[in-house]
Structures are given as structure tokens and as C-alpha cells.
Amino acid sequence: MRRPRIAKSGAGAAVLGALLIPLSILPIAAAWPLAKREWESFAWNYLDRDPAPAPDVSLAGAFRPLPEYQGAVPVLAYREISSRPGHYRVTAREFARQVLMLKRAKFTAVSPSQYVRLLEGERAGLPVRPVLITFDGARQSSWSAADQVLRRAGYRATMFAAAQDVGSSRYFLSWSELGKAAKSGRWDIQAASPSGNVKAGPGREGPAAVSREWNGKALEPPTRYRRRVSRELLESKRELQARVDGFEPLLFAAPFGDYGRPGATASNDLAAAAFYVPWLRRTFKVLFVQSDPVFSSAADLHGFARRYEVHADTSVARLYRWLDQGLHFEAWTPEERAAHLARRARELAARARCVPAAGLRVAAPAGTQGIAAYAGGELASLDASAPFTVRPEFRDRLGHRVAVVAVRRSGRRTVRSRRVLLLKSCPRAGA
Fold first, then answer.
1. Is the pTM of this model over 0.70?
2. Cα distance between residue 131 and residue 147, in whole Å
């Protein structure tokens, strides 16, 4: 019997090859996710990442320049610039809007050395409306999102970095990126506590710098704690000095402002402050804390200074309002104070109206018709028939009488105005 003949053509081989291709791809497809993760990890940790372009933004309102001031500096604190949601995260677009507001209001971003010189009372060659912009942690996202915004505005910022964090993960800048930031002239690097935690008790963790470590049975002895913390701080300082051009230890920031002081709930030993804080004060000029923010002043040198924390819900208007209201009148330059008083006197004089002498509980000066109030609001809103009392208190810098007004209502209740009034005598009609 004759065997069946098998066709020897390329068609069969082609079909077989086509069937084997998917099988050959399966190992590659299975390994691809792992290879992709490994490459991303390598790229994040060892390849430089370029800053993102600055977003185009605009502002609807007008932000007038604040008066020139001296011996005081507002300090802004950013935790992270990121598009990810979170209370401590500010978007790149909102940060760009805030920087544009600062620019329009004639603020100048200063370096840590300029900040210290301003608190020491120097003025020569220093800006008249300084602001210190700070970032906590050497976060890559903050540098990437903020760098080109600062470049466009001609601003600079201070980044607090712990050497132990730099290059430790994709979340932080690499040493190469940190060096590039410092060399750009837009970033000043200062020291910070490491961001890591230690076991601070059964089922509890605490900041490594202000917590005694728990070994499963007891807390480490205070002497071992002091040796560990001082070693970490010194190593971080020395590594920053060796690897960052121009590094000068002037300012220091601890995570969430925790220095082991009373009220710092993250620490498991409040006595840590007895060692930690004096050590830092000997090394740095200013330590930053989280508290009700006020402008920095000379009183903060070798002590604690407060910063205004910018959060996701901090609008441009809210930030400007704090800057405007936080500047104390006594911090204005003498020239600004004199100009303001003269301008205010002219404005008030233009609005002053004469209150008849019959409505006053004190006699008007002889030969006058009554007393004119420069403050406008309170006296202008009073019923002329209602009795009220003008009580002179003192004279202001321009020689005007300054008083408060007490208004009697319902025959019993007395409401006192807390706004001062500038008073002058009204001449009699026809005089």
C-alpha cells in the first residue's frame, strides 16, 4: 500500500511559526511589569529628573505693595508642591499664583544669610520688603514643580534637607539633583532633622531625633539617645558641607516643628529638649517651629521663629491678607511711618464733620462751635440727639487729640468704641 504524501511547502512552516509567536512572547509579557518597575526605580534613584515648565497663570485682583519695613521678615513654609490631593500639598499652579502676587506686591525673596542679617538689624544692600520662602524636606516633587516658577520671578527659596533622606528613595532628590539646585542660585540648602521614625514604645513610633528608641523591653538609655542623635546631626551637617556648594548652617527645621518640647505629642521623652535644643542653638542661628505665625524679628535669633504654613486651602487673597495684617506698624521704616501719618491725617481731615457742642458731655473749647472727628465712622453714625461723651486720652505724633467715644444706649448700657478718633476744634460759623 502506498503511504500518503506530505506536501513539502513553505505554507505549513509559516502557519506553524505564526502559532508559536504568541507562545514565545508569553515569557517577555510576564517579565515586563517587573522589568518596568526595575527601570522606573533605577531612573528615579539614579537618573536626573528635569524641572517641569512653569505654568502660565494670571491674577484678577490688584495687590498693592506693603510699606517698606525693617527688622522683620515674613517666612512662608511649604511642605510639598504636588498635583496629588492632600492638606499639606499645594499645586504648581497655585504656587505660581502666590509667587506672582508676591512679585506684584514688590516682595524680594531673600537667602538664609540675608534673613539673618536683616534680623540683626542690617539694612545696607538688603531689600526693603524681604520674604523668606522655605520648603520642608528634599522632596523631588517640590523642586521639580517650583524651580522654574522661581526662575521666572527672579526669586529664590530655601530647602531644608537631611543628608539621611537625600537619595534614599524616589520621593527625595538625589545628591546630583540637590547639587544642581544649589548651583542654580535659586535654592539655598539648610539642615533638617531626618524624616525617619524609630520604635518609641509598644505599637508606637516617634520621630527619631526626639524619641528614645524602644528595643522591645525598654527605652534606650538617655546617654545612648544623646550619642545617637548627636552623631546623626553631625554626620548630616558634615555631608551637606562636603556635597553641597556654599552650604552654611544658619537655619534648622524639624519635622512638624517637634523639638521634644512640652506640647510636642510625638516625642516619648520631653526631657529630650534639654539636650536637643541647646545643641541646635549652638550650631544654628534660628530654629523654625509650627505655631501661630508672626513676622520674624531680632528676638528670634538663637531661638525659635514661626512660619506661615501654606496649605492646599491657602488662597492668594488669604496669603496676602496675612502679609498685610502681620506687618506691625513699628516695623515700618521711619520714612514710611511719617509718610503714612501725614497721608492719614489728610484723608481724615477731608472726611471730618463738626459735632455740635450741645451733643457733647464735655464742653467744647471756648470760641468754637463743636468738635470735628477725623475718624468718621463712629460719630457719623450716631443720632445727634443721643448723648455721648468724648474723652481725650493723649496727643498723637501729629499733635492731634486722640480720644475714645462712649455712647449711652437704653439709659443703662454703655458701648465704648475701640477705634481712636482724631479731634480738632470747629470754628464758629462766620468766624
1. yes
2. 17
| Domain count for the chain | 2
Structural domain for 171, as ranges: 46-331
Cell of 247: 552650604
In a domain, 41, yes or no: no
pLDDT of residue 430: 56
Q: Do 235 and 357 fall within a single domain?
A: no
Residue where a domain stops, chosen among 285, 308, 331 = 331
The H or E element spanning position 421 is strand 421-427
Q: Is 150 helix (H, G, I), strand (E, B) or coil?
A: helix
Same domain, 223 and 301: yes
Q: How far is CA 243 from CA 102, 148, 156, 171, 238, in A?
A: 32, 23, 20, 19, 9
Dump pLDDT digits (tens) for 278-321: 888 888 999 998 777 888 988 888 888 999 999 999 999 999 99
Q: What is the mean pLDDT of the chain?
A: 77
**Is the domain of 313 the same as that of 364?**
no
- Over the stretch 115-130, which tens digit does the pLDDT of each residue have? 999 999 888 889 999 9
For 134, 144, 179, the CA distances from 246, given in Å and listed in that order, are 17, 21, 10
Based on the domain organization, do 359 and 324 belong to the same domain?
Answer: no
CA distance 258 to 420: 41
**What distances in angstroms separate CA 147 from CA 82, 87, 143, 180, 270, one per listed residue?**
13, 22, 5, 11, 38
